[in-house]
Amino acid sequence: MIIDVHSHYVPRGWPDLGWPLGPRLRVDSEREATIMVGDQEFRRIQDDCWNPARRLEQMDADKVDVQVVSPTPVFFAYDRPAMQAAGICRVFNDLALDICTDPRLVPFCQVPLQDADLACAELDRAMAAGHRGVEIGNHVGDQDLDAEGVVQFLQHCAEVGAPVFVHPWDMPDGPRLDRWMARWLVGMPAETHLSVLAMILGGVFDRLPDSLRICFAHGGGSFAFWLGRLENAWHRRSDVIGVSEFPPSHYVNRFSVDSVVFDERALRLLVDVMGEDQVMLGSDFPYPLGESPVGTVIHKAEFLSSTAQAKVLGGNAQRFLALEPSPA
């Protein structure tokens, strides 16, 4: 079974909720729309964002059996009052179920992460309605994943068995980052790396049970490349580096990463550092910076044994999603 754990959706029926300067959907034609943030174009999208038939057609072309379908992060609403954000999440999550009527499409919900109690309540509601997991942003304002409310929510995810997909969002901007798509090319990897560090050095993994299933997008950002530097800092400057009980390398089996790194050499490093059990196929479908055809780097990676390749293509995701093993 080939499982893509990283794709996004935008419901075509997204209503205008009167959210000043917030994202809205401008429908341009039957097959095209534009995500607007205030009066600015954020991203032009096609109907593969909301049309399940188009999505399944592309999955068939790429020989993908199952696809996890997660929100587009610009709609998270973490900057809104918590009750308003909870209402936005309910609308978004319910519309997602209209897209994911086919069992090959596995919906992940979003939650008002700025309020732990409301986030837990919406997760429970969405899971009862048919969602199979949750996508969260890598931070809420200046609070990272070691913030007390986020830890409370992750504890709840572990208790109810909800897999968590962490996606970077709301990257810093400025003259140096507002050209060449640098917010996506530099900011996203850095944001993800920072949040992995927050969970390790902030002692989050020491507080959460091993049963938490959590995956970081885009290969975990730059974490794998800089683990050695992090390890060195932990040993040499333990007085300032953090509160984790063990060195950073101790925690690499506590989380997974997807494979959206686009280069066999980068994938080799990722598997070497994380282990073949902690890397899962991801594509970032249907957006332009995603991998197409899906799984190209994994299929071409000569360093992967057949067993390792089967794990990365789908076996690890079956465990992450708690799916039944596929027939022989």
Automatic annotation (TrEMBL):
GO BP annotations listed: secondary metabolic process
Pfam families reported in the protein's UniProt record: Amidohydro_2
Keywords noted in UniProt: Decarboxylase, Lyase, Metal-binding, Zinc
Pathway(s) of this molecule: Secondary metabolite metabolism; quinolate metabolism
Similarity annotation: Belongs to the metallo-dependent hydrolases superfamily. ACMSD family.
Subunit structure: Monomer.
Name of the protein in question: 2-amino-3-carboxymuconate-6-semialdehyde decarboxylase
Species assigned in the record: Sinosporangium siamense
